[in-house]
Design goal:
The complex is a heterodimer of chains A (768) and B (161).
Chain A: H1 17-20, E1 36-43, E2 49-55, H2 57-61, E3 65-69, H3 71-74, E4 102-103, E5 109-115, H4 118-127, E6 129-134, H5 141-146, E7 159-167, H6 170-175, E8 179-187, E9 199-205, E10 210-214, H7 220-230, E11 238-241, H8 257-269, E12 272-276, H9 279-285, E13 292-300, E14 306-318, H10 327-334, E15 344-353, H11 367-385, H12 389-396, E16 405-406, E17 409-410, E18 420-421, H13 426-437, H14 439-442, E19 449-450, E20 453-466, E21 471-478, E22 484-488, H15 497-508, E23 516-520, H16 537-564, E24 571-574, E25 577-580, E26 583-586, E27 594-600, E28 605-617, E29 624-634, H17 641-661, E30 691-696, H18 714-717, H19 719-730, H20 745-758, H21 762-766
Parallel strand pairs in A: 1-12, 10-11, 14-15, 22-23, 29-30
Antiparallel strand pairs in A: 1-5, 2-4, 2-6, 3-5, 7-15, 7-17, 8-13, 9-10, 9-12, 13-14, 16-18, 19-20, 20-28, 21-22, 21-27, 24-25, 25-26, 28-29
Chain B: E1 3-10, E2 13-20, H1 25-32, E3 51-54, E4 57-60, E5 73-75, H2 88-95, H3 105-118, H4 124-131, H5 142-156
Parallel strand pairs in B: 1-5
Antiparallel strand pairs in B: 1-2, 3-4, 3-5
The chains are: A alpha+beta (768), B alpha+beta (161).
Bound molecules: FE2/S2 (inorganic) cluster (FES) (2 copies).
Chain lengths: 768, 161
C-alpha cells in the first residue's frame, strides 16, 4: 500500500442509503416481470397428523388458477440437506419440501397454488379440501422424551442428537469443591423476525432451460447447488440473485421448503412465479429459535475462583432437523463457559423433536442462551459467597496470557467441531465498561427502594464467534473507464456490506472509493462463495478482497514493467495509475485485467466485551424500566465505526426484545398462539431508549490479514443474563431469582408474589 | 372482481389508477402505480412500514382500501426528495446512519415528515412516542432518533423540508 488507509476506520456514509432513503431499493416483492404468476402456500393447520385427502378440484377450476401443486405433482419429494453441523443420526429427521403423508407442525407446506393474481391464489388456497387425521401433538420436549408418540415412525426415538462438552475432570472438581449450587433455567421460543418477510421470484426460461431465482441471500452458492440437484439441473443452469434484503439475523436465506417449491412451480407452469410470505406465515414457517431448558451446577472455591460447571440442557428442536438445526445445540454446550476460565466442564445437550415449527440459528445462536445460564449462575454464586459480582468476574475472566485457549472439547467429534478463543484483553474491556457505566456510583443503588421501585445493577461478559465457513472469493476487474469492479461471494443482509467492503477495496488499491464498484451476493459473480452467516462477511469477504488487491497490484506491476521497460519492483500502483519514475499510465490502459483470489480460513475470530445494566422494578406491577444499558466490545479492527455502532445498538435492542417481550407461544395441541405482530411483540422506540455502546479495535485478530473479528451479535449475547441479574439484584431483599425467560411484567410479578408467600418472615431471609 | 378508476394526486402528479374494489392502498401504490418504496411488513397495521401521507396525515396504507383514497393527495417516500435532492430529513438519516436494511425506512421517513411538519419542535420523548408506531428490527432506534432531532431545524425554518 503506498498511502495510509484513508477509508478503513472512518465512518463513511453508506452507499446503500442513496437508494434506500429514496424508496428506490429493490426488494424481492418489488420485482414484477411480465407475465408474473403469484404463489400462495397452503399450510397445515394441524400440529401432528396423517393427511387423508388434499382435494384440489375446486381450486383448480377457479378462473385464473394456473396450477395447484401437491406432493403428488412433485413425485419423488426431495428432502432438504443439512448445511452445517450435520450428524448421521440427524439424517432421518430432515424436512421434505412438502408434506405428503404426514404433517408435523402448524405451518408445514401442503400445497402451492399458482394464479394470475395474488388474491385469486389466496381464494383458491381456501378452496382446497384438506383432511388430516390428527395424531397426538408432541408439544413439549418432555412429551417428546417419553417416545410414546413418535414424529417419525421409521425411527425409534424423538431424540435427534446429543452433544457432550468436556474439559478437565468435572466429577473430581465437584467432589472436592468448596462451594456448589445447582439451578434450573429456561429460555423461551422466539425468532429473528426481520421486517421484510421472506420472498422469492423464480423465472424459468423453457427455451434456454435456465432458472433465475431472485431473493437469495446468506448462502446463495450452497442453495443454488441444492435447488439444481433437486430439480435435476446442472448448477450452471441455475442462478441465484441477491437483491436488497430486509434483515436476516441468521434466519433468512437458509434453504427452506419454499426454496424448492417456488422454482419447481416456475418450471411446472413454464414461466415466472413470485411468492411473498405474509407475516402470519412468516411467524409459523421461518426458523424459530432458542427454546431450551437447563439443569446446571456451578462449583467454585470459597474465594470465588471457578472450578467447574456441569449438567444438562434439553433443547426443543421443533419438527425437523433443518439446514443448521444442530448449530445452536452444539454452541450452547460449547459456550457455557463464555470468556471465563472454568477448568472443568461436563455438559450434555439433548435435542428433541416436537410438533412445532423447526428451529435454526438466530443472531448469537446458543450463545445468548448459554450466557443467560452462565451469568445467572455466576451472580448466584457471587452473592452466596459475599463477593461483588464485578470483582467475581474480573477474577475469573481468562487472562490475556492464557489465550489462545480452547473451549470445551466436543466429545466424540472431529476437529472441525472444536474451536479456541483467539486473543483479547477481556479484563481491560470489562473495566472500561464498568467505568463508562459508572459502576462504583451506581452500586450504591443496589437493591434500594426509591420512589416505590427497586433498583438493581449487573454486569456480564461475552465472546462472539465469527468468520465461520472455510473460504470466500473475490474477483477484481479493471473496467474500460479505469474503475475497478470488485465481486465477492459475501451477501448483504442490511448490514452495510457494500460500503464496508468498498472501503477495504479502496484502501487496498489506494484509490478513491468512488472508482470502486462493488458487487456481491449473486452466484453469477464469482466461481464460488459462501455468503453471510456467523458474522463472517466483513472478515472473510474483506480478507479475500485484500488478497485479490495484492494480486491485481502484482499483475499491474508486471504489465507496467514490460510497458516501461523496467523491473516490476520499480513500478508502483496508486490512485488509479501505474507509475514508473515520472512516467505514469492510467488504469484504463489496463482495462480487462482481472484476478480472482480465495481467502481460506479454518480458525474462527472471537470478538468479546462486557454489558452492564441498571433497572428499576415496580413490585406492584412487575414492570421493569431499563434506566441504562452500556456495552463495550473489542472487534479487533474497526472498518466503519458508524455501521458497527448501528450493529451493536440494534443487537442490544434485539436482545432486550428477546429478554422482555418476544415469545412464540403454543398451546398443548401444538397450535401457535402468536401469529401476528400484535401478539408477537417486537421492541418499539419507547421501550428501551437508554442504550449505549462503545466499540474498540484493541487487539487485532491474528487469524486474518485484515485483523478484523466478526461483530454484530455481541450486543445481543449477554443481554438475558445481565438483565436477569439486574432484576435479581434489585429484588434481593425478597430473594427473587428470575430463572425463566422472558422477563415479562406478569412473570416478574408472579415471582414477587411467590417470594412474598414463601418468605412470610423476610427478616429470617435477610440473614442468610 | 369489480374494477373502478380512482383519481388521486401522488407526489404532486394527478393519476388515474384502475383498482379492484378489494385491494388495499398499499397494494395499489406498489402494484398499480408501481411505487414500490412503500413497503408492506405485516398487512395488519402494526409495523408502520406502509405509512404514507394522505392529505397531511400519516396513514397506514395496508389498512385502507385503495378506493377510499379517491380524490386525496398522497405523498409516498418517493415524493420526499426535491428534484433528486434528498430532503433535510433524508440527508440527516444518511448522516446519522439511521438506515440498516432500509425496509422500515420509507414508513419511518413519512411518519416523521408528517410529524415535523406539524410539530417542528417535538422533543425526543414526543419523537419516540410517535416513532413507536413504526417497527425497525435493525437499528435499535437510537440513530433514527438522532437523525430526526437534527432534521427538526429545517422544518422550523418553515422551509418545505
Ligand atoms: S404493513 Fe401496514 S402496518 Fe405493517
Ligand atoms: S433498518 Fe431494517 S428494519 Fe429498520
Amino acid at each position: 500500500m503506498t498511502r495510509s488507509n484513508a477509508y478503513i476506520g472512518s465512518p463513511l456514509d453508506r452507499i446503500e442509503d442513496l437508494r434506500l432513503l429514496a424508496g428506490a431499493g429493490t426488494f424481492v416483492g418489488d420485482l414484477k416481470p411480465d407475465n408474473l404468476l403469484y404463489a400462495v402456500i397452503l399450510r397445515s393447520p394441524i400440529s401432528h397428523g396423517r393427511i387423508r385427502k388434499i382435494g384440489t378440484a375446486a381450486a383448480r377450476s377457479l378462473q385464473g388458477v394456473a396450477a395447484v401443486i401437491t406432493a403428488a405433482e412433485i413425485g419423488e419429494v426431495p428432502i432438504i440437506p443439512v448445511r452445517q453441523h450435520g450428524k448421521p443420526e440427524g439424517e432421518p429427521y430432515r424436512q421434505p419440501v412438502i408434506a405428503g403423508e404426514k404433517v408435523r407442525y402448524v405451518g408445514e407446506p401442503v400445497a402451492v397454488v399458482i394464479a394470475s393474481e395474488q388474491c385469486i391464489a389466496e381464494d383458491a388456497a381456501e378452496l382446497i379440501e384438506l383432511e388430516i387425521d390428527e395424531l397426538p401433538a408432541v408439544a413439549t420436549h418432555e412429551i417428546a422424551a417419553r417416545d410414546q408418540t413418535l414424529l417419525f415412525e421409521n425411527t425409534v426415538t424423538n431424540l435427534a442428537t446429543t452433544f457432550y462438552a468436556r474439559m478437565g475432570d468435572a466429577d473430581m472438581a465437584f467432589a472436592t469443591a468448596e462451594y456448589k449450587r445447582k439451578e434450573k433455567f429456561s429460555v423461551h421460543r422466539h425468532t429473528a423476525s426481520p421486517m421484510e418477510t421472506r420472498g422469492l421470484l423464480a423465472e424459468w426460461n423453457p427455451e434456454l432451460q435456465r432458472m433465475v431465482v431472485s431473493g437469495a441471500t446468506k448462502v446463495p452458492f450452497f442453495n443454488r447447488n441444492v435447488v439444481a440437484e433437486m430439480l435435476r439441473l446442472q448448477p450452471s443452469q441455475v442462478d441465484l440473485i441477491e437483491v436488497d434484503v430486509g434483515g436476516g439475523f441468521g434466519a433468512r436465506g437458509e434453504f427452506y421448503p419454499e426454496d424448492f417449491l417456488i422454482p419447481f412451480a416456475a418450471r411446472y407452469v413454464g414461466g415466472n412465479v413470485r411468492w411473498v410470505e405474509d407475516r402470519r406465515e412468516h411467524l409459523m414457517a421461518m426458523n424459530h429459535a432458542r427454546e431450551m431448558y437447563a439443569d446446571l451446577e456451578i462449583a467454585c472455591r470459597k474465594d470465588g475462583t471457578l472450578v467447574g460447571v456441569r449438567g444438562r440442557i434439553d433443547i426443543d428442536l421443533g419438527a425437523y432437523v433443518r439446514t443448521n438445526g444442530f448449530t445452536t445445540p452444539r454452541n450452547v454446550v460449547q459456550f457455557v463457559s463464555g470468556p471465563y476460565l472454568i477448568p472443568n466442564i461436563a455438559i450434555d445437550a439433548f435435542s428433541y423433536l416436537t410438533s412445532k415449527t423447526p428451529t435454526g440459528t438466530y443472531r448469537g445462536p446458543g450463545r445468548y442462551e448459554a450466557s443467560f445460564f452462565c451469568e445467572r449462575l455466576l451472580d448466584m454464586a457471587a452473592n452466596d459467597l459475599g463477593i461483588d459480582p464485578a470483582e467475581f468476574r474480573l477474577k475469573n475472566l481468562i487472562p490475556e496470557d492464557q489465550l489462545p485457549r480452547p473451549l470445551a472439547t466436543m466429545a466424540g467429534l472431529d476437529r472441525t467441531w472444536q474451536t479456541e478463543l483467539d486473543n483479547g484483553a477481556y479484563g481491560v474491556v470489562m473495566e472500561r465498561c464498568l467505568k463508562e457505566f459508572g459502576w462504583e456510583e451506581k452500586k450504591k443503588l443496589q437493591g434500594q427502594l426509591i420512589d416505590g421501585r427497586y433498583h438493581g445493577i449487573a454486569v456480564g461478559n461475552f465472546v462472539e464467534g465469527g468468520a465461520g465457513g472455510r473460504f470466500e472469493n473475490a474477483r477484481m476487474t479493471i473496467e474500460k473507464g479505469g474503475t475497478v469492479t470488485v465481486a465477492v461471494g459475501s451477501t448483504a443482509l442490511g448490514q452495510g456490506l457494500q460500503t464496508i467492503l468498498s472501503q477495504i477495496a479502496a484502501d487496498a488499491l489506494s484509490m478513491p472509493i468512488e472508482r470502486i464498484r462493488l458487487l456481491h451476493g449473486s452466484t453469477t459473480l464469482v466461481t464460488q462463495g459462501f455468503g453471510s452467516f456467523h458474522s463472517r462477511s466483513t472478515v472473510m469477504g474483506g480478507s479475500a478482497i485484500l488478497l485479490a488487491a495484492e494480486a491485481l497490484v502484482a499483475l499491474l506491476r508486471d504489465k507496467g514493467a514490460s510497458h516501461f521497460g523496467c523491473e516490476p519492483d520499480q513500478v508502483s500502483v496508486s490512485d488509479g495509475y501505474v507509475y514508473y519514475g515520472t512516467k505514469s499510465m492510467e488504469f484504463s490502459a489496463f482495462a480487462g485485467s482481472e484476478v480472482e483470489r480465495q481467502f481460506e480460513n479454518r480458525k474462527l475470530t472471537y470478538s468479546y466485551g462486557s454489558h452492564t445494566a441498571h433497572v428499576a422494578v415496580d413490585p406492584g406491577t412487575g414492570h421493569v424500566e431499563l434506566l441504562d444499558y452500556m456495552t463495550v466490545d473489542d472487534v479487533g479492527r474497526i472498518i466503519n465505526p458508524a455501521t458497527l455502532h448501528g450493529q451493536i445498538l440494534g443487537a442490544i435492542v434485539q436482545g432486550l426484545g428477546s429478554t422482555f417481550l418476544e415469545h412464540l407461544q403454543y398451546d398443548e395441541n401444538g397450535q401457535l398462539l402468536t401469529g401476528s405482530l400484535a401478539d408477537y411483540l417486537l421492541p418499539t422506540a419507547t421501550d428501551f431508549p437508554n442504550i449505549r455502546g462503545i466499540s474498540l479495535g484493541l487487539r487485532p485478530c491474528p487469524n486474518n490479514p485484515l485483523g478484523a473479528k466478526g461483530a454484530g451479535e455481541g450486543g445481543l449475547i449477554a443481554v438475558g443474563g445481565v438483565i436477569g441479574n439486574a432484576i435479581a439484584a434489585a429484588l434481593r431483599s425478597m430473594s427473587v431469582e428470575p430463572r425463566d425467560l422472558p422477563l415479562s411484567p406478569p412473570q416478574i410479578w408472579r415471582l414477587i408474589q411467590q417470594a412474598k408467600a414463601s418468605n412470610h418472615n423476610p427478616k429470617m431471609n435477610e440473614q442468610s | 372482481m369489480t374494477s373502478a378508476p380512482i383519481t388521486v394526486t401522488i407526489n404532486g402528479a394527478r393519476k388515474t389508477l384502475n383498482v379492484s374494489s378489494r385491494i388495499t392502498l398499499a397494494d395499489a401504490l406498489r402494484d398499480v402505480a408501481r411505487l414500490t418504496g412503500t413497503h408492506v411488513g405485516c398487512e395488519h397495521g402494526v409495523c408502520g412500514a406502509c405509512t404514507v401521507i394522505i392529505d397531511g396525515l400519516a396513514v397506514r396504507s395496508c389498512l385502507m382500501l385503495a378506493v377510499q383514497a379517491a380524490g386525496s393527495e398522497i405523498t409516498t417516500v418517493e415524493g420526499l426528495a426535491n428534484k433528486g435532492e434528498f430532503s433535510a430529513l433524508q440527508a440527516s438519516f444518511r448522516k446519522h446512519h439511521a438506515v440498516q436494511c432500509g425496509f422500515c425506512t420509507p414508513g419511518i421517513l413519512t411518519t416523521m415528515h408528517a410529524l415535523l411538519r406539524e410539530e417542528p419542535d417535538a422533543d425526543e420523548e414526543r419523537i419516540r412516542d410517535v416513532l413507536s408506531g413504526n417497527i425497525c428490527r435493525c437499528t435499535g432506534y437510537v440513530q433514527i432518533v438522532e437523525a430526526v432531532m437534527e432534521a427538526r431545524a429545517s422544518y422550523s425554518r418553515g422551509s418545505a423540508a
